[in-house]
Amino acid sequence: MRASFQLKTIVATLGLLGAAVTSQAYAQNIKFAMVIPTTGPLTQYGDMVKEGVSTAVEQINAAGGINGKKIEVTTVDDACEPKQGPVAANRVVNSKIGYMIGPVCSGAAIAAAPIYDNEGVVVVTPSATSPALTEGKNFHYIFRTIGRDDQQGPSAAKFIIEKAKPTKVAVLHDKQSYGQGIASSVRDQLQKAKVNVALFEGINAGDSDYSAIITKLKSAGVDFVYYGGYHPEMGLLLRQASEQGLKVRMMGPEGVGNPEVNAIAGNAVEGMLVTLPADFSTNPKNAAIVKAFQDKKRNPSGAFQLTAYAATQAIAESIKAVGDDPKKVADHLHKATINTVIGPVSWNKQGDLNAFDFQIFQWHKDGSKTPATK
């Protein structure tokens, strides 16, 4: 019995030592959070961001981590819902995580940003484009690796004015922060150029029948439609317009640039115009990173994969420069220029990029895209 007792004591002691070693190793990791939609209708955008973050973390950790410490990523779901944004933020804060990539959608980001900023969590969103996230907020910890809608909107409007040259335009939106914001920006630019904006109207996101608005578009005699919102509604607008004989060109922001739009719109998606971040995957300097994506069967050419990779790089490089301290990292980001997969990036005092390249692409029924010329 005594020998048995001693054996049990030794085993228990070894177990405790093993747990202590594991705990110590775990403590050496640097925790990042990734707040994305893993539920709801916009999970595809979460998948894009996840691919970018995962690839960046794998590359950084394989190269020795950050100052010898590995990055450990916790995924938190906010469903791209404004009501869920603060819930997700509190989960990040309560988990004592000091760095976060996301939120993906502007509405959720706007709702959650005050919590992150008050609690000192460094946030870099690779996809939330609404100016309302940062404009006039005096946040210190909120950054982006994508441009704002008031950069994206003028790019879209310039193409409409100079290349598409419609006679009568309708501008639609989904009544939400992101969609209505960018639609308003496009409308304002078109009106400044004396383009006839015959209709500016909101539709309800999540509806399945847009016959009424399509009838209104036909009655107004428009030959071009700009839609501010996401791909589920854009897909339905394209398909139902085609079914009802409305032959117009349609254009949307990066929120419609998702292969899932093809499944909804079918052949009617052919020729859809979309503003997207430049395709950084075509830059020869990114060849090794593109290969790392492809080796994992990930798509480096989507809307947010490489902006998410860049967001991860920006935080990692700042920690490398100033240490694992969110306050110092935020200070560093405000004054640094960091070389990333999307090029050298720097931020103004609001945390917005000093420059970002949005381009116009034409979407095709096979899910591919090509630069738009007219």
From TrEMBL:
The keyword Signal applies. Keywords: Amino-acid transport, Signal, Transport. Residues 30-367 form the Leucine-binding protein domain. SUPFAM superfamilies: Periplasmic binding protein-like I. GO terms for biological process: amino acid transport. It comes from the Bacteria. It holds the Pfam family Peripla_BP_6. Residues 1-27 form the signal peptide. Belongs to the leucine-binding protein family. This is Amino acid ABC transporter substrate-binding protein. It comes from Comamonas aquatica DA1877. The lineage of its organism: Bacteria, Pseudomonadati, Pseudomonadota, Betaproteobacteria, Burkholderiales.
